[in-house]
Amino acid sequence: MSEVPTLYRAWFEEPAVDRRSRGNLAALFLHRGEQAQEREAAMTIEQERTTRITVLGVGGAGGNAVDGMIGDGLAGVGFMVVDTDFYGLTRSKAQHVIRMELNGLCQAGFGCSPDLYEMWVGEVAGQIRDHLSGVDMLLLVAGLGGCCGTAATPAIARIAREMGIFTVGVVTKPYRFEGNRRMRMAERGRSALAEVVDTLLILPNEKWLAAVMAAKEDVRSEDMFRRAAHNQCCAVACVAGPLVKGVIGIDFDDVCAVLRKRGNSMMGIGEAAGIRRAAKAAEAAIASPWTEESSMKDARDVWISVTGGRDLDLTEVDEAVARIREEADREARIVVGATIDGALDGLIRVSVIATGMR
User: Fold this and answer.
1) What is the DSSP pairing of strand 53-58 with strand 301-308?
2) Which H helix or E strand runs over 140?
3) Quick one: pLDDT band at residue 175, thresholds 50, 70, 90?
């Protein structure tokens, strides 16, 4: 299993922000204004003409995942974070940040009431709608089990659904050591979110940790939550990459056909190098322990994304797709995209999302 990128160390660095003006949130975020403008200006005309995609992180875990994607260079998408945490938002690298606050209650420890978060989201619903205006696809990123990500994410997804935005949820579930109470809260959040998104990718932290332990790999405690966010980054790249920079591009209509109103979905990602790397990466994706849905057997809709360096060959794309096709239903609708990433020279990464399992 690959090491966690060093980019995540930046998450915990203190920002160069004057916090004496605590009451004026807008003033505290001015230090990021020029950077956001530069990122937006850097988008090419071609990107502006393609599907508009926004990644929205909810709560602390969602915000960390967004920072990781920005640091990892995910291009062609917009970034936004919604949270109650004042200091967490000041550290965010996202272009747009929104703080939920209702009459000062957010510092008062009012617990994880979904009704309370509905009120908080309602207070900032106008700002959320403004930032999502014109967006075609929304990728909601959060950690379930905590207060903000669990209770606020379904409320934000409901706003997106009312706006007619195609919405994919990419959420983590807690580690076992975090306790039964947190897991029960995550299950309630999962049920609420599944009702208001088109596709839900659930990444149980415990599953990848079990795979690491089975391989007898060492995992430092400080890397555990960073790795959870890294998994979300990879899932978002799997969905967004072929749409914004694919050499074999995927049309947005194809995305809707495979993922719209599909509920829980299976996702797998595999990497390999050397001889028969495409087939090996496809095998690893099929066996990947990333999502709660663990099998794509007899899937009726399959999204396949193949990413490689400049040495990626079309025959390798065909080989990877052929192996995955063996697992799906014989009449399955299969959508394929391929992307070049210079950082993967010598490697091939195969990502698959399967829906409609019988």
Assistant:
1) unpaired
2) strand 137-143
3) confident
